[in-house]
Design goal:
Elements: E1 2-11, E2 17-24, H1 32-40, E3 50-59, E4 63-71, E5 81-83, H2 104-121, H3 123-129, H4 133-143
Parallel strand pairs: 1-4
Antiparallel strand pairs: 1-2, 2-5, 3-4
Helix pairs in contact: 2-3, 2-4
Length: 146
């Protein structure tokens, strides 16, 4: 079984990130990209909102969860959860990449980091993200090389 989750992301003061979370299963004949757009209410032709697959994970019981970052949040007036620290979940060794536990805040951190990479490396995504200077500014420190 495959499910699709969306993380509708917004940048706040001090480069703190907040998110709304939604999850669904693709409908018959629907691609995961289409399911993510349906779930977040973003049209395929929207030039100002990024809908990008950022990760996947295996959950107990055999479900594969495909995560999509949606940025900026298309409904920023709705309540969101703030992530005070962007902490990535990591495996214990190079050949064991799956962490023992993955919290939703870890998935958000990975998605924000992925968007930072795309801001620096993908002209199409960067063009959309730069339409919102607050988003681009919040992603700049994430996009900077280590």
């Amino acid at each position: 079984m495959v499910s699709v989750e969306t993380l509708m992301l917004r940048a706040g003061s001090g480069n703190r990130w907040s998110y709304r979370h939604a999850r669904t299963h693709p409908e018959r004949g629907e691609s995961p990209d289409e399911a993510a757009r349906r779930l977040s209410g973003v049209a395929a032709a929207d030039p100002a909102t990024v809908v990008h697959s950022t990760s996947w994970r295996y959950e107990t019981g055999g479900e594969i969860v495909l995560t999509y970052a949606v940025c900026p949040d298309p409904e920023p007036w709705l309540p969101a959860v703030e992530v005070p620290v962007l902490e990535i979940a990591r495996g214990l060794a190079p050949a064991t990449p799956s962490p023992d536990r993955v919290a939703l805040a870890n998935v958000v951190a990975h998605a924000v980091r992925h968007l930072g990479f795309l801001l620096a490396e993908d002209a199409v995504v960067a063009r959309a993200l730069r339409l919102r200077p607050d988003i681009a500014r919040a992603l700049e420190p994430v996009a900077a090389p280590a």
